[in-house]
Amino acid sequence: MQARELLSVLPADLIKSILVRRQKMADQLPKELKSRQEENNRAFQLAKASREELQAIQDTDEASASHEERLLQAQQIYDEHEQFRRRTSSRLQTIKNNIQDCQEAIDFWEKLADGGWGHLLEDAERVRSGGASSYAEAKRHTADKEGES
Amino acid sequence: MTSKSSSLFADLRQKETSEIEAMYETALAQLSTTENQLLDLYRKKKIHSETIKFAVSKTTQIPNMKGQTEDALVELAIEQKEDFDLHLARRDALVERLLVPRHRVVHAMGEFHEKLTTPLNPTESISLATEMEHFARFFELQAMLQIYSEEQDVQTSLHRARSNLLETIKAVNKNDRRLAQLINQHRSNAKKQRTEAGRLKAYLEKINASPVIPVPEPSPEVNERLLAGQALTMEEFASMLEHGGLTELDSKKVPSNKPKQRNKKSNRGTKPRRSQRQTPSRKRD
Q1: Does B110 sit within 8 Å of A1, measured CB to CB?
Q2: A145 shares its domain with A95
Q3: Which of B107, B114, B115, B123 to probe by mutation at the A interface, max A CB count within 10 Å?
Q4: Residue B276 lies in a domain
């Protein structure tokens, strides 16, 4: 975007754009949640089956080389499936968190859309009234800290 | 020596003493004028040099002219430098307050706007806190950009003031070089005038110191008496000093009875080792 366009952006416009993006995301999330749940269920089933198989091999009292090989193979399969289950579980949790965050964000920005964004524009107001920018203040703060130490 | 003196003063011999005295006075007056002009040039050059130093911020001290110069260019340079400093201070205050330069403000604003509005994948997430932070930053940067736009004349005026000052300084520098040339010319003239005044002074001293009654030439009888080892009167001695005769005695000297010593081989080269002739003015001074 060019400087002129950026200068013409109003808080209400930006909030509207944020809300549009959040709504679009909120619309996509249930579908995503469903696919993640299915994926997670599948991963859970696979992990459960491989665990039971491993358990069964461990429970037999054989000491042959073929038994040892089957045990090792079952362990590897179980590890892979368990890793997959954990990954899908994490993805599912991310989607759940996103749904929650998205809803909170939508609620927040909807409230602000009526003109209650004042507290977010404190830095802008300070700069506009002749004060230092937050970048300048941060630099001064760092310099002061270095001066003290 | 006598021939050198005569060639040095050859042009003066035909002139009357009063005329030479007048020439001497004129030479002194010219010398005095040249030296005064030289002093004035040195003073002007100093002011020019100080002005250049002040303009390029090598010194903070304004050149002290004490109303002695009417050089409008120097005054203009000082005025423009003060104007430039004011604009610079204004620009520095703005930069110190906002810290982020204009081009970076525009760039950062674009980035924040993109982060807030670009569609996201459902797997990507942006927290509400980050959104709030970006929102606040975007509008702070917008306020900064607005200030930069309003204060655009700060940069423009600073640029203009710098250009004006540089142009003036170029002109002052040119004058400074011209003054240096003039100083060299005046120094050379002063040297010539000092030499001429010295020559006239030496000639006047010479003719004023010359005896009124000419000393008569020594008679051959005086030479004989001198060779015989007899005493001479003061008049006879003065006459030999004035007209010569004493040096010729050496050639008629009886060879001594001492055995001849073999001459040591000299290291001296074949070239004559004559010293350079000193300037008459220095000799007389």
Answers
A1: yes
A2: no
A3: B123
A4: no
Taking CA–CA distances from B93, the nearest residue in chain A reads A132
CB-based contact, B115 to chain A, within 8 Å: no
Q: What is the ipTM of this complex?
A: 0.83
Q: Which residues of chain B have pLDDT under 70?
A: 1-6, 65-70, 210-215, 245-285
Strand boundaries in chain A, DSSP class E: none
When divided into structural domains, chain B yields a total of: 2
Q: Where are the beta strands (DSSP E) in chain B?
A: none
Asked if B140 lies within 8 A of A133 by C-beta distance, the reply is: yes
Tell me the DSSP string of B58-116.
S--SPP--TT----HHHHHHHHHHHHHHHHHHHHHHHHHHH-S-HHHHHHHHHHHHHHH
d(Cα B219, Cα A130) in Å, to the nearest integer?
A: 112
Do both B198 and B97 map to the same domain?
Answer: yes
* Per-residue pLDDT tens over the stretch B173-229: 999 999 999 999 999 999 999 999 999 999 999 888 765 566 677 777 888 888 888
Judged by CB atoms closer than 8 Å, whether chains meet at A7 and B100 is answered as no
Chain B closest CA to A93's CA: distance in Å? Answer: 11
Q: Is residue A5 part of a domain?
A: no
Q: Please tell me the predicted confidence (pLDDT) of residue B42.
A: 93
Residue pointed to by tokens 């070239």:
B271
Say yes or no: B158 and B247 in one domain: no
Nearest to A136 among B96, B132, B138 (CB): B96
Domain check: are A53 and A79 in the same one? Answer: yes
Structurally, chain A folds into a number of domains equal to 2
pLDDT digits (tens, 9 = 90+) for A41-85: 999 999 999 999 999 988 887 778 888 899 999 999 999 999 999
Min CA distance, B37 vs chain A (Å)? Answer: 56
Same domain? B151 vs B87: yes
- Is residue A121 domain-shared with residue A99, that is, in the same domain? no
